[in-house]
Design goal:
By secondary structure, this protein is of the alpha/beta class. Helices cover 33% and strands 19% of the residues. The chain has one domain: Rossmann fold, CATH 3.40.50.150. It is built from nine helices and seven strands, in the order ααβααβββαβαααβαβ. Strands 3-2-1-4-5-7-6 form a seven-stranded mixed beta sheet, with helices on both faces. 34% of the residues are buried.
Length: 252
Amino acid sequence: MANGADRDDVLARLYPEVAAGGFTRYDGFVEFYNRVNALLAEDSVVLDFGAGRGAWQYEMAGFHRHLRAIHERVGRVVGVDVDPVVEDNPSLAEARLIEPGAPIPYDDATFDLAVADYVLEHVSAEDAPSVSAELLRVLKPGGWLAARTPNKWGVIGVGARAVPNTLHTRVLRRLQPERLAEDVFPVRYAMNTRGDLARLFPEPHRLLVYGHNSEPRYFGSSVPAWRAAQLVDRLTPPRWASTLMVFVQKSG
């Protein structure tokens, strides 16, 4: 059965540059959080939307953990989630439990930045308009929403939608056996195309979206599966990249 060490061995074999700093040139986490950190200031107030239990604090080390530990570099980070595990997230100055699609329990124009890392894909179609409106409401004018989410039309998005949500945990357990069940959630894909995002975050707000293909960690420790995924990535047009990097600046 595959484990994290097996995946690290595959990573080092296929991406030897990982020996210099612990990340590959395709690392989507580094790509995303480098840009997030570039939007921060020492006095920034940050909303971690869908903060969860803060699994990164237990599963990451080195440069990745440094990039993600934004609470160590800003004025304040608070978090909201529909799962009560958020109340045990030690990186947050404050945690609030919310219902899906419910108002975010903070005043207008509270935050300089909101981060939603692999969260938007879990928002239902009926909740998507209220979620986008609430995220914009709590941002300060000129503030940013930074989101990383699967592309509905990318390989991962198509594959995930081909698997019923009742089987999703079972499939992930086979591909990523070290992943805890509490870190697996149903996928909806109502905010996961450029068209959806343009509709939900319309002008005069500034919407920036680009595709990204990371190394295929999703495929466990199978070298043939990784090589096949690499080939698919090379042949895939950028518009169909597996991940969307989404940055929305609230109009001032």
